[in-house]
Amino acid sequence: MALEPNFLLSWVFLCIAATISSTLFFLRKKTHKFTSKKLQQKKNKKLPPGEMGLPWIGETMEFYKAQKSNRVFEDFVNPRIIKHGNLFKTKIMGSPTIVVNGAEANRLILSNEFNLVVSSWPSSSVQLMGMNCIMAKQGEKHRVLRGIVANSLSYNGLESLVPQLCDTVRSHLDTEWGGKEEISLYRSAKALTFTVVFECLYGIKVELGMLEIFERVLEGVFAFPVEFPCSRFARAKKARLEIETFLVEKVREKRKEMEEEVRRPNTTLFSRLVEGLTKGEITEDEVVDNMVLLVFAAHDTTSYAMAMTFKMLAQHPTCRDTLIQEHNQIKANKREREYLTVEDVKKMKYSWQVVRETMRLSPPIFGSFRKAVADIDYGGFTIPKGWKILWTTYGTHYNPEIFHDPMSFNPSRFDQPIQAYTYLPFGGGPRLCAGHQLAKVSILVFLHLVVTSYDWSLVYPDETISMDPLPFPSLGMPIKISPKMAL
Ligand code: HEM
After folding, report:
1. Conformational region of residue 294, where left means phi above 0, alpha means psi within -120 to 50, and beta covers everything else
2. Transmembrane region positions (predicted)?
């Protein structure tokens, strides 16, 4: 049977209409199914308990207040752990944040850098340290920079550095302590740490006024990033520019020198960075920004650990006697003013336990921020993508199930192995402190040369610790000193 043209046309129309309507119906059903699946998924995502505080500022004031008096654990973290558990939500500095505590949560967050989270620093820190510094880098760029920095600062890399470190500490003590009866231990430790980075890592002589310029930058690192003429941040930016000009000149000089003397081995961290520059692995900005960052990373942290170790020793005379005995034995096997070696540092086992215990109780960095780059499901809750995460040392360092009688000072607890991700003064995972070995040898060499050369006592045994935002002894920890009589 042949079909009439009119009939054929109506038939084609009918078919098209049927196809369109069935497609629409199918799509509607699918969209409906999809949206309800999304809604269902949203419903399944349960935020951790906690309070978001006031609109926009959230609980920032409570956090800052606790931080200023060095009571972040007592007044902010612990009351919320008691109320909500190890995972709680809050809002700090305008950002919805999940605070995580405990070994398992630390492992999840710290070991998943780049996959689930990325480190998240305030805009002022990134502007002052430089966008090209290691802490602001992710992925491949982070790997390359980390390779240069961490290799130079590894235990093997430090082997040649220990005698040099010994020389730097000794000449610091001769010039800054010699002939004095009282000194500020914290200020002395800061000046020393600064000299160690410049002279031992960069081979650049510290000149008068340099430390002050750097400290002006450091003062702005956590300041509000507004550039009013006299604001902390504006002063810091001006100081950063001065440093940049100085370092760029040094980098170019070094590059020229290295190109002219092809055969000299590139042993210092500075020459390794410049070598990376000549090979085209990194840029000049990356060299400069990382040189600034390393000063910042080493400065307040190492000096606080040094000062607090002395405070703990003063409060625990039995520990002090054991530690002094360890150093006297090392000294007894050396000639007068002979340099220490890595082997000597390895013998300072008890001293390192004392330092570790000090950093457990008084961590120079109590935690740091990350940003979730994907939804993270953990412990029956979801940390939403885009939220900040704050991991803290407190959740494990002060936990009696992990460290027995956690508030007591007991260096011998480190005779036993420590469970992973419970002891975190240096962080963990891919962002583990790249300078932890340098920090260790600097503190131990300093301890050795002080306790074998000086008798000392705290001027204010009850001196309080403030935070801004890193902790520091509020009076600079003055100590009375007198040279030890030669035996
Ligand atoms: C007692 C002294 C020190 C303490 C307590 C300390 C602590 C830390 C912590 C907790 C982190 C990780 C931060 C995070 O996870 O966001 C870190 C990272 C870092 N630290 Fe240290 N630090 C110390 C000394 C040093 C020194 C002496 C240097 C080098 C001169 C250094 C260089 C670095 C660098 C480069 C990073 C960034 C690593 C990366 O992003 O891959 N630190 N430090």
Report:
1. alpha
2. 6-27
